[in-house]
Amino acid sequence: MKLRHVIIYVYNSFNDPLFKGNLLLFLQHVGRQQPDLRLHLITYEQQDYALSEEQAAHVRADLATYNIEWHPLQWHSGSFKLLKKAYDLLVGLLLVLKLRIGVGARSISGLGTVAGSFAFMMAKLLGLRYYGYQYEPHSEFMLDCNVWPESSMAYRGLHYMERLSGMHADILSTGTVHMVRRMQEWGTSAKVYKLPSCVDETNIYFRPEGRARIRTQYNIPADKQVILYLGKFGGIYYDREIAVLFRVFQQRNPGLFFLIVSPDAPAHIAALMQAEGLPEASYTITRSPYEQVQDYISAADFGVVAVPSQPSQKFRSPIKVGEYLCCGLPYLVCAGVSEDDLVAEKYGVGIVVSGFTEAEATRVYPQVEALLNREKTQLRQQCREAGIAYRGLSQYLATADTIFAQL
């Protein structure tokens, strides 16, 4: 049997949920289904996601069962960011060259458009086929959310590379029908597939024992109605606006409790809540390893997605809504975010707002309250069915098989 060696280039740590709860699921599947495939996974390990030697050895052994060989590199941050990214790129290029010559790798795939741009350049330099996984316009996200000005080198460079790699890739997969249509309109030479961030529905589901554990841990009474925010603050997400939303909801219903699970600094989040006058007893701020996220979702009665309503956001494919739904949780989302707004209305499992403003929060709170007061068993089932149809891993495994068979 002739082996097909494919490089998977990820500018994230192995333990980063963006990789671990996303692309890794498809790699494990195709590694099982296509025995001639050998996947060479390159990651950049950050201190926030550091693994002990014992943990790393366990990861390596587990990946080997899926015919995946792991090549961890070190991620560099701090001062002289551009130089450090150039260094990371050079180290990655040398490793890819080694794999190209040593094992005869013939294809490379990049996760997202930052890693994807790096991988595309390597593909062109070394004569590899290029597959862009989760192709979406990250530069436009940063521009719309006022993180990067249009004149900045970061925006201009990434925007150029996104267009170039999108037009000249061999294969692209993207999370929404909106991006598929854009690439068709642009006339890309790539084969384009819809392959969103997916949830393994066999592992992500409502856990009554998880609900009880989290509520006990944070002293939340069993009958208390809990609103969950799971994610980051600021950047390409709302910041102060999340606290505004919570303050309006709390004013309408002082009995609500807000469970905030975020990798961001608790002091920053607490300052936002305090500035809006949220009573300290009405919220808690914590963080969670990816493996326990479903317990926090299970502990809640309603979820919030804090992606602003901007033109570029329809191209995003955040995994959060899939996780919420598969755990039986209805949600609130802004109009024009991924296909999350369409799914909310189609299946009756969410509420759509134009933005996180006081007026919008006041307008929709009666709808939020109606969902909070719904009979839980039926609502959870309704949400889970919608989640599996929308983001269930089983819905897209055949697409992944088709893509990797071509690499």
Automatic annotation (TrEMBL):
Annotated SUPFAM superfamilies: UDP-Glycosyltransferase/glycogen phosphorylase
Top-level division of the source organism's lineage: Bacteria
Put simply, this protein is called Glycosyltransferase subfamily 4-like N-terminal domain-containing protein
